[in-house]
Every structure is written in structure tokens, then in C-alpha cells.
Amino acid sequence: MRITDTADRWWKNAVLYCLDIETYLDHNNDGVGDLAGLARRIDYLAELGVTCLWLMPFYPTPDRDDGYDITDFYGVDGRLGDHGRVVEVIRMAHDRGLRVIADLVINHTSDQHPWFKSARRSKNSPYRDYYVWRSDTPPDTSDEVVFPDKEDSIWAYDDRTGEYYLHHFYSHQPDLNWGNQVVREELLRVMDFWLQLGLDGFRVDAVPFVFEDVDTASKNPSVPADPHDLLKEFRGFLNRRRGDAILLGEVNVPHADQRRYFGGDAGDELTMMFDFITMQNTYLSLARQDARPLAKALQTRPAIHPTCQWATFLRNHDELTLDKLTDAQRQEVFDAFGPDPDVQIYDRGLTLRLPTMLGNDPRRLKMAYSLLFSLPGTPTIYYGEEIGLGEDTSQDGRMAVRVPMQWTDGKNGGFSDVAPGRLIQPTVEGPLDARHVNVADQRRDRDSLWHFMATLISRYRSCPELGWGEFEVIEQPLTNVLVHSCALPETAVYAIHNFAAEGCELELDLGRDFADTVLVDLFSDGRIPLDGRGHATLPLDAYDHRWLRLQRGEPLLP
Ligand code: NOJ
Questions:
Q1: What b/e string do you get for 346-384 counting C-beta neighbours within 10 Å, with b at 16 or more?
Q2: How far apart are CA 212 and CA 247, in angstroms?
Q3: Active site members
Q4: From the alpha carbon of 69, which atom of ligand 1 is closest?
Q5: Ligand 1 mean position to 90 CA, how many Å?
Q6: Mean per-residue pLDDT for 425-439?
Q7: Ligand 1 test: best mutation among 20, 22, 66, 68, most atoms within 8 Å of CB?
Q8: Which ligand 1 atom sits nearest the alpha carbon of residue 105?
Q9: For 296-316, how does the pLDDT look when each residue is reduced to its tens digit (9 = 90+)?
């Protein structure tokens, strides 16, 4: 790794921060967060230390899927601001060294999008082929729907033209026809537009579903021979326009299949992908207080091209999906972290944020975030995780976790000054309300989760080993402890995490190659000498976590 690589391939050890503008800060006091509010929090985000913002959809929308139902890919939702405000946010972020990416929803539009309105008016509409239609009665597809509480088929009948259109998500989100070259060109222009306004890339929504649409539409002669050609076309275009822009894909498929979405050996498709498999196994390990499921998930991650990267995370804005665990494993996580059926959703997930799941135990929360940041890859946090923001389970389904940010202990948690009844989303009530959990108090308290997260972020950023190094699980006898290392030729970070509620003693054996070397604790600055056999005994507290650097050459930090 050359020093120029770390600058150019910024995504290899970035810290991503996902936020929804409408629940972040309401500047004009109409009850809805806005871009002007976000602009006033750019310094906050820079201070926290994150390096890239991921803005959830801010485009015009009927808002039936929280903005993922878009009516104009080039527009800005008027409640949030306008293009001038978008540019202002991007410029302010860039001034502080932060990058900005935004959601690119390519699988579908809203049924209120002018393309679909025209397409359903007549079979001869020039936009008819922008979507996927069938005239025969579809088979039972109830097992393919994404939201089984609301849909029972991926096909919806359109009265006007007497045909069915495809929709993997809600029936008000018709799937675009990716077999149609014209659709692909439309979306390339959309990317081009936002890149010109300054975005640094895109979080690409629901990527595997796009591929399924290509299969479904395969009667169309313009279908590329291999749907992966689509991603290559996208990536090629993106990087011709902006060499350092990224595509971060939402691809919840088994590890073995993910490699292809990176473009295999060529690494010329998605730049980054969320690691859903590691995330789900992290919860299984936390639930069992046994590090082995996580260790196995990490060991079976496919090797990826060196310029690509995994995005690690514990929580996002959707249900905490556990769909890739077995039924019995999922039940173990439900039993441990969400036994109440009211917080379970779609038979696969939970509608809670991390603090509630972990009993708001600060030791366990800190251990979970230390673990997240120590995993090989680029960590992603969802707004509010830095303060232990809670949820509102009285809201419908996934909306439970999309609560207003809590800035102060004042009115509406400092999110907005309107009467509470006019807020876009009610604020959290109960033990995690704004009187107990807010940014202002935590910034003043050196022992707060906020300070812990800021320190973690700072350490992560000074550990290129984590984003760039070779990963290895270090064998040792304790099943409740994960010891892993990320190593570059001259330096390595050893991370130690105790998943158990009890303390223990770890016998760390790195072997004779490490005889008489010293491990430096990156949080306490303590030093742990290894003996002549490369061995040390480490007492660990309940939910303990350590990052230890072993350094042979020139020190990374003075
Ligand atoms: C995935 C997004 O994360 C989710 O919130 C949305 O509902 C679906 N894609 C459909 O766009």
C-alpha cells in the first residue's frame, strides 16, 4: 500500500454515516428536517470524525416508501429544500474533507412517475417498455415478495391496458425494465447529473432485484447476454466521469455470490457492498455469547479485488434482517434481542435499534461498536447510533427506527420547534427519550457513548490495517472471544472482543516469530510484552474489547 493509494481509494478505510434529511434537523420549523438543517450539522459530523455521508433519498416522492418511491430522479423534495441547498451541503461537506454519496434507486420508480403514468395509459406509449409487462395470468409468486405484510404477488394487474406489471417491492413501485437500453441510458444521465452537482458516488438500492428484472424481461432482444454487463457499464461510466466516485451496493445475497457483484477478478462492478452475512452472524454471536458464527462468516468471505471493499454495519434504516440465518438461528436472535412478536417483522427481522436490543448496557454497546470498527472493511453507522438513539415501536414496521435525531434535552429533542403533533415522526419516548439521550449532554460527558464513538472513529482512521490489511482469525481456546488481526507488511492490529457477560483470561499465542515484541493498546496506550515464545496472558472483563498494534517498522503515529 502506497500513501497515494490511501488518498485515492478513500473508500477502503472511510467511515460512512447514513442519514435521512427529513429526520435530522428541521431548520424552517415546519416539522420536517431539511437540507438547511443538515448544513448546520456538517461541522458536527466533521467533529464526530465520519468521512462520508450517505444521504437517503431526497427526491420528489409521494412518500409511500419513505422516499424510495421517486417521481423525479433529477428533483429535490420541496419539503427538504432545493438544488441550491443540495449543492450547499455538498460544498460544506467537501470543505471539511467529507464526501457525500446518495441513494440511487434503479430498480423501480413510483407509480406516480410521469414515465409510469404514460406507460399505463396505452400499450403504445413510448414509455411502455420502460417497465416490465405480461399479458398472461402470473403464477403464484407470494414467496418472492419483499414485503409480505402488504403484498402477495410481484405482479399487479393494470385495469387500463389489461396487463400485469412487475414490482418486487410495493405495487406502487413498478420495476424498471433493465433489458431496455433506453432505460439504462436514462439512469446513466441521472448519475451524470448528480456527479456534476458534486456527489462522490451512490448507494445503489436493491441491486439483485435489477438482475431479476433483466431475467424476467428476457424476451426483450436488447437484453445484455450477462446482466453483470449492466453493472460494468455503470461502473465504467461512473469512473469515466469521476475517477474516485463509488458505487456502494445493497446486495443481500450469500457471500459466495457477492464476489460476482464486485466483478470477480476484474473488480469492475460495484466498488463496495454491504456485508449482510457478517452483520447477521454478528447478532448470532452476540446472542449466543459465542464468537464462532462471526469468525466463520468472516473466514468464508470471498476474496475480493484489492480496490473493492466491504461495508460493515450493525444497523440500517430497514428491518434488522436475519433472513440468511437458519430458522433456528434466527429464533435464537429473536429470543435474545426481540422476543416480543410486536417487534418482529416479515418473519425475518426486528424493528429495534441496538441499545434496546442490548438492554442499553453501555459495556455491551461499546463492545459491539468496537467490534464493528475493528472488522476488516469500512464501517457504516446509521444516524443516532453515536448517541444510542432508540426507536418508536408504535410506528408502522420499519418506520420504528426512523425517529427524529435527538440534539438536546429540550423541545422535540432539539430536532424542531413545532408543536409535537406536527412532527414528521414522533420523538422517542421512555428511557431513551431526549432527556436521557441527546448529543448536547453526551458531548459534555467524556464517558458518553458519543465520546467513545468519536474515539473509535479516530482510531479506525489511524489504522489503515483495518481497511487494507490481510485478515486472519487467531486461534485460541475461548469460544466467547474473537481474536482477529488485520496486517500490512510492517504493522498489524490485533482486535480482541469478549462476547460474554463474564470476565475470562485469554492466552494469546502469536508464535516465536513474535518473540519479545510489544503490543501497544490503542485505547489505553498500555503496553503488552510478548515473551520469548510470542505469548502473553490477558485478563478480560465482561464484554471487554482491545485493539492492539504490533509494529515492526517505522511507527505509524509519532
Ligand atoms: C431497499 C431500501 O433500503 C428500502 O428501504 C426500500 O424500501 C427498498 N429498497 C425499496 O426501494
A1: bebbbbbbbbbbbebeeebbbbbbbbbbbbbbbbbbbbb
A2: 19
A3: 205, 250
A4: 11
A5: 24
A6: 98
A7: 68
A8: 11
A9: 999 999 999 999 999 999 999
SS3 content of the chain, % helix, strand, coil (to 5): 35, 20, 45
The DSSP secondary structure of 126-194, one letter per residue, reads TTGGGB-EE-SPP---GGG-S-TTT-S-SEEEETTTTEEEE-SS-TTSPBB-TT-HHHHHHHHHHHHHH
pTM: 0.97
Cα(136) to centroid(ligand 1), Å: 28
Q: How close is the Cα of 226 to the center of ligand 1, in Å?
A: 25
From the list 427, 332, 369, the residue with the least C-alpha distance to 545 is 369
- Decide: 425 and 392 in contact? Cβ < 8 Å: yes
- Rounded to the nearest angstrom, the distance between the alpha carbon of 69 and the centre of ligand 1 is 9
Q: Which atom of ligand 1 is nearest to the CA of 65?
A: 7
State the burial class of residue 136 (Cβ atoms within 10 Å of its Cβ: 0-12, 13-18, 19+).
exposed
| Protein residue closest via CA to atom 3 of ligand 1 | 318
Which ligand 1 atom lies nearest to the CA of residue 108?
11
Residue with CA at minimum distance from ligand 1 atom 5: 318
Segment 455-499, tens digit of pLDDT: 999 999 999 999 999 999 999 999 999 999 999 988 999 999 999
Strand partners, 32: none
Enumerate residues lining ligand 1, CB below 6 A.
65, 68, 105, 169, 205-206, 250, 317-318
The C-alpha angle with vertex 61 and arms to 58 and 63, in degrees rounded to 5, equals: 100
Phi-psi region of 29 (alpha: psi -120 to 50; beta: other; left: phi over 0): left
- The residue whose CB lies within 8 Å of the most ligand 1 atoms, and thus the one to mutate among 175, 209, 318, 399, is 318
How far is ligand 1, taken at its centre, from the CA of residue 68, in Å?
Answer: 6
Please check whether residue 376 is in contact with residue 469, taking contact to mean a CB–CB distance below 8 angstroms: yes
Please state whether beta strands 470-473 and 481-487 pair in parallel, antiparallel, or not at all (unpaired): antiparallel
| 3-state class (DSSP) for residue 58 | coil
Half-sphere exposure of 261 (CA within 13 A, CB side): 26
147: Cβ contacts below 8 Å, ≥ 6 apart: 169, 170, 346
Chain segment 73-115, per-residue pLDDT in tens:
999 999 999 999 999 999 999 999 999 999 999 999 999 999 9
Which atom of ligand 1 is nearest the CA belonging to 169?
Answer: 10
Work out whether the CA dihedral 35, 22, 348, 70 comes out positive or negative. negative
Starting at the edge strand that comes first in sequence, how are the strands of the sheet with 133-134 ordered?
133-134, 163-166, 155-158
The Cβ-side half-sphere exposure at 527, using a 13 Å CA radius, reads 6
Q: CA–CA separation, 553 vs 491, rounded Å?
A: 7
